[in-house]
Amino acid sequence: MLRFAQNCEAIAATTKKLQKAAIVAEYLKSRNEDEAAISAVFLSGRAFAAWEETTLQIGGSLLWRAVAELSEKDESALTAVYRKHGDLGAVAEEVLPHRSGQGLKILEVADAFRQVAAARGPAAKSALVRDLLARATPLEAKYIVKIMTGDLRIGLKESLVEEAIAKAYGAGLAEVQRANMLLGDIGKTLRLAVEHNLANAKMRMFHPLGFMLSSPVESAEEGLTYFAEAAVEDKYDGIRAQAHVSGGVVKFFSRTRDEITESFPELPDALAGLPQDAILDGEIVAWEYPQDLARTQKVVDESPSEAGEMKAMELGRARPFSVLQQRLGRKKVSEKMLREIPVAYLVFDLLYAGGDLLIDRPLRERAQVLDELLTGGRKVVHHGDTEAQSKVGTQGKLTFDSEEEISAASVIRAPVFFAGTPEELEGLFVAARSRGNEGLMIKDLASTYAPGKRGESWLKMKRELATLDVVVTAVEFGHGKRIRVLSDYTFAVWDMHKDRLVNIGKAYSGLTDAEISEMTQWFLEHTIEDQGFRRTVEPKIVLEVAFNNMMQSDRHDSGYALRFPRIVRLRPDKTADEADTIERVREIFEKQNSHS
Ligand code: AMP
Q1: How far is the centre of ligand 1, averaged over its atoms, from the C-alpha of 205 (Å)?
Q2: Distance CA 412, CA 474 (A)
Q3: In angstroms, what is the span from residue 207 Cα to ligand 1's centroid?
Q4: Average pLDDT for residues 323-333, to the nearest whole number?
Q5: Is the per-residue pLDDT at 265 higher than 70?
Q6: What pLDDT sits at residue 376?
Q7: Which atom of ligand 1 is nearest the CA belonging to 239?
Q8: Are 46 and 132 part of one and the same domain?
Q9: pLDDT score for 289
Q10: Which atom of ligand 1 is nearest to the CA of 234?
């Protein structure tokens, strides 16, 4: 342990990362394999490998008391030393007495840690800790205490220990990182590096892998610039969770890698029956299940002829995050909570299945395997057709060929949509928002799963600026099936003196067919000037419009233009003079620019 401690001092003494890694590499090489393996764990600031559930379970105050007793210093003297260092390990080094015969082997320290972890109750743990520290030299005690508090504070991250292992045993850094990720055990990783066997590292279940992260995009247009083919999902507002399923055991881990299974007792059962071991990625959301599920099912039974349509079940919809929050951080979830705030696990990725690690396969394949896994090979219907998707207010549906899945309703494959143009993506965004979700996730179908990385393979689109109330000033006939109706509206806000309307944009989506036909009738009757394809109309109709951002532009006489404007709703409750003014537009513009 002395050599370990001395090396830690040397590592702390330099700020250069390369030098730190070189010191660690030299040190590891000088040890036998057992010592090197346990050293790697300790150097990562841990008493046990990351995957292990074992913890020492000793708090700072227990350690403090142990140091106090052994040093025979009173509280105020110890506090003064602590003020000087701000680190209990350094305090231990300064105050613990140096006696002859002290000194420990690193493997003895590892054994002692196991005993402390296994001991029940603070008294038993204290006795073991005191004994351990009494046998150590003051410098050894410094690092034993640091490991016990979980932080060496020598500027050494686990990634540097990985680098040192690669250097020491002539292995590739990427292989070392990968093995450590799969095993959650830097000690075992070191052993594989020694044996030149890193390629054979197998996924160890029940220790969480890093979560893939996303980057924001500001507009639908930007959302489609990064890759060729995108899978689009709603961005649910809940908590990210990785589920490990093996041999009927199911555990959920949060983004902070804490186990959160206890908070969601209804979820494990729904996954325990999976036909294969698996690691799933998804979002736990407070969920509103459709009340008439049972009734729908009955209809299916009674009229098998109505197959297709009737079998599709409405999955329900997410409730706001504030609702889920009431269930978080509880050890015990009451029956009442379970009933009043049911949750669902919306699964959107699969990292491992049936012995195969899938993270290096493209999303396209992972998604397919996930569909098969969750439906036992039965068909999952994705919405490929944008007409159906953009219907505001409908949650995506999964169609099953059997009713078994109904019981597993709390695990839901997150519906996947596709968009080829910014307009289609915009439609999906509006639909996701109308379902109460935060926005969209846009994912590269060709991308691998990059644990712990934030890149451009997953994009999040959630920004929506304030809406504007505008007045319709001119209308045009639409295209396609809207060729006979006045569906494209030019709209305006009031200028500074509120005596003139200044155009700011044009929008052609968002209203229902019934509303469009009613509006067409009204505009035909209130035309000021018929220019053929375009009519200026009496400025009386107020709309609420949303948009993704605002630009200064001389396209319209307001001096501003809206990006991806869309009609949120008609505002028959407002008269034209209640519409927004150019001041409000400026305000939104300023606010938007101060954010970016
Ligand atoms: P943010 O927290 O704003 O950085 O957004 C990223 C988070 O969105 C992820 O960590 C997930 O918790 C969450 N999320 C919600 N829906 C999805 C989805 N369909 N795919 C990926 N992440 C999602």
Answers
A1: 23
A2: 45
A3: 21
A4: 83
A5: yes
A6: 65
A7: 12
A8: yes
A9: 83
A10: 19
At residue 3, does pLDDT exceed 70?
yes
- Identify the three-state secondary structure at position 532: coil
Q: How far is the CA of 459 from the centre of ligand 1 (A)?
A: 9
Domain that holds residue 57: 2-169
How many Cβ atoms from other residues are within 10 Å of residue 483's Cβ? 9
The answer on 476 and 374 residing in a single domain is no
Distance 236 CA to ligand 1 centre (A): 7
Torsion of CA 252, 254, 260, 261, to 10 degrees: -10
Q: How many domains does the chain have?
A: 3
Structure tokens at 237: 């507002």
- So what's the pLDDT on residue 385? 36
Mutate to test the pocket of ligand 1, among 235, 350, 462 (most ligand atoms within 8 A of CB): 235
Is the model's pLDDT at 517 over the cut of 60?
yes
Domain boundary among 129, 153, 169: 169
Closest CA to ligand 1's atom 10: 240
Tell me which residues have their CB closer than 6 angstroms to ligand 1: 214, 233, 235-236, 240, 283, 348, 414, 441, 460
Distance from the alpha carbon of residue 235 to the mean position of ligand 1, in angstroms = 6
Please check whether residues 252 and 383 belong to one and the same domain: yes
Using only the alpha carbons of the chain, give its radius of gyration.
31
Residues 506 and 395 in one domain: no
> Given ligand 1 and candidates 211, 212, 214, 239, which is best to mutate, with the most ligand atoms within 8 Å of its CB?
214
Q: Quick check: helix, strand or coil at residue 422?
A: helix
Q: What is the CATH number of the domain that holds 107?
A: 1.10.3260.10
**Is residue 42 pLDDT above 90, yes or no?**
yes
**Has residue 427 been placed in a domain?**
no
> Could you tell which of 233, 240, 440 is best to mutate to test the pocket of ligand 1, judged by most ligand atoms within 8 Å of the CB?
240
Q: Which of 373, 398, 414 is the last residue of a domain?
A: 414
Nearest CA to ligand 1 atom 4: 214
What CA–CA distance (Å, rounded) separates 198 from 374?
Answer: 32
Which one of the listed residues 235, 251, 311, 506 is annotated catalytic? 235
386 Cβ partners below 8 Å, 6+ apart? 417, 418, 419, 424, 427, 428
Could you tell me if 570 and 511 are in contact, meaning their C-beta atoms sit under 8 angstroms apart?
Answer: yes
Number of Cβ atoms within 10 Å of the Cβ of 574? 15
Among the listed residues 242, 209, 219, 211, the one whose alpha carbon sits nearest the alpha carbon of residue 442: 219
Q: Which 3 state secondary structure label does DSSP give 57?
A: coil
**Which of 121-130, 320-329, 372-381 bottoms out in mean pLDDT, i.e. has the lowest?**
372-381
User: Would you tell me how many other CB atoms lie within 10 Å of the CB of residue 74?
Assistant: 9
**3-state DSSP helix/strand/coil percent for the chain, to nearest 5?**
40, 20, 35
Instruction: Confirm whether 235 is a catalytic residue.
Output: yes
Domain shared by 150 and 263, yes or no = no
| Tokens describing residue 183 | 């095993």
Mean pLDDT of 331-336: 87
Residues 161 and 296 in one domain: no
pLDDT at 593: 67
Atom of ligand 1 nearest to the CA of 443: 20
> According to the model, what pLDDT value does residue 379 have?
41
